[in-house]
Specification:
Layout (H helix, E strand, L loop, with lengths): L1 H51 L1 H6 L1 H16 L6 H8 L9 H15 L7 H19 L8 H24 L1
């Protein structure tokens, strides 16, 4: 019994941090999975549409490209830097990751897939996970004194969506 008390006295704070990070990690995984499910649902609808209208797919590619460029030029701001921004934020260079990253990357990928462009899902999944989890880190970083909490949450969100995206790719194929 004394040994347990000594261990808790020595490591109680780190155990509490671990339990807190684990609980928030589950919440992050749930939140980003909801965004990924919406993203995947849109991709499935778009894929079905492309099968039924293949001619329009080829003809709309230039217009879709212009639309995506216009969206990121007009509304992108920092979010238009894509994965470079995610890596820089993880190193602490810019201090924020805009919420619009989720919306812009999702819509741009849907438009690109609709027009038949060859774009992947994994990069978008990482950006969505990073942007959603960054908001958790932004909320907790001044309330909880855990070093690098925003970076921990950022990486957690990125990993959560890679796992979710792997499962999603099995459904689509």
């Amino acid at each position: 019994m004394n040994t347990c008390r000594k261990i808790l006295a020595d490591h109680g704070a780190s155990a509490a941090e671990f339990l807190f990070l684990a609980a928030v990690g589950v919440l992050i995984g749930f939140a980003v999975s909801l965004f990924e499910a919406l993203f995947g649902w849109g991709l499935i609808l778009i894929q079905n549409w492309r099968v039924h209208f293949p001619v329009w797919t080829c003809l709309s590619l230039p217009v879709a490209g212009l639309l995506v460029v216009w969206l990121f030029t007009r509304y992108g701001g920092l979010a238009s830097r894509g994965m470079n921004l995610i890596f820089e934020v993880s190193q602490g260079k810019p201090e924020r990751l805009p919420r619009r990253t989720v919306f812009l990357t999702t819509v741009a990928t849907w438009i690109s897939h609709l027009a038949g462009a060859s774009v992947g899902r994994e990069g978008v999944a990482v950006q969505i996970g990073a942007a959603v989890s960054w908001q958790f880190g932004h909320f907790f970083h001044k309330k909880i004194e855990i070093p690098n909490i925003r970076t921990i949450f950022l990486v957690t969100g990125m990993a959560a969506l890679i796992c979710r995206n792997k499962e999603l790719s099995l459904w689509i194929r």
